[in-house]
Amino acid sequence: MPIFAAPDGTRLAHHVRGEGAPLLCLPGGPMRASAYLGDLGGLARHRRLHLLDLRGTGDSARPADPPSYRCDRQVEDVEAFRAHLGLDRVDVLAHSAGGDLALLYAVRYPRRVRSLTLVTARARALGVDFTPEQRAEGAALRGAEPWFAGAREAYARIWDGTADEADFDAAAPFFYGVWDAAARAHAATEVEQSNEEAAAHYAPPEAFRPAAARALVAAWDVPVLLVSGGLDSGPLPRVARGVADLFARAESVVLPGAGHFPWLDDPRGFTGTVTGFLDRRA
């Protein structure tokens, strides 16, 4: 397990899986250890995945300064990660809340990014958030599922800010395309892998400057891929397409039967989509 130092001295860990050209992977959560990414549905057979444990998660140390969990302050951790790997330019993949960190990194270090893959990713850094109404629209797609009646109200409480721990457990099926044994096992690891204190610091409004970020990506000559799940509510596929339209060079792909973790729901489709995108840049 390789270790390197962040600029403030915090010891950060990353995990390496697979062979091939390197791909820097930023987890979501927010602030969930990278273990939940696994081998990204077999993507490690095509790329060497460098999976970063963000500060205070997984095998990375907790910082002395908790406000350094803010995603804009973690941009320098990503830059230290790139330098540690000895790469001049990097292909970056980010999942969910990791999308904000990846976008902030790209805005601050645009010449260091070779390509950007955003997987069911947040885009608050560009002024796009996912509304409760959009979450309800996505949830309604699951109305025929046997678990729907027992999970719908819990899911709504997550997005109106009144959920308790039991609600998060009850709503877990909404995040997966198929609520089977594999999905249950994956969901069961979330609490132990997540740093709740860090998550509370991660994305305050003052971390973002959307107007400046939009201006940069509108002229940014770097290829961007947005992958969304047809059964996911964050982002809905149409919202992901809207985010793609903010970039000078972006494409949006929807995996129809996938939820928030598309490499689990459709590993072949996910791997083919991402490798096809990256191989065109090789």
How is the topology of this model organized?
Layout: E1 3-5, E2 11-17, E3 22-26, E4 48-53, H1 75-85, E5 90-95, H2 98-108, E6 113-119, H3 132-140, H4 148-160, H5 165-171, H6 181-188, H7 190-193, H8 196-202, H9 210-218, E7 224-229, H10 237-244, E8 250-255, H11 262-265, H12 267-279
Parallel strand pairs: 3-4, 3-5, 5-6, 6-7, 7-8
Antiparallel strand pairs: 1-2, 2-4
Shape: globular
- Number of strand segments: 8
Strand content: 15-25%
The structure class reads alpha/beta
* CATH architectural type: 3-Layer(aba) Sandwich
CATH-defined fold name: Rossmann fold
Largest sheet: 8 strands, mixed
Tell me the number of structural domains.
1
State the separation between the terminal residues, measured CA to CA.
27 Å
Measured as a percent range, the helix fraction is 25-40%
Q: What's the CATH first level?
A: Alpha Beta
**Average pLDDT taken over every residue:** 96
Radius of gyration: 18 Å
Number of helices: 12
**What is the string of SSEs from the N terminus onward?**
EEEEHEHEHHHHHHHEHEHH
Q: At the fourth CATH level, what is the homologous superfamily?
A: Alpha/Beta hydrolase fold, catalytic domain
Biggest β-sheet: strands ordered side by side in the sheet: 1-2-4-3-5-6-7-8
Unreliable runs: none
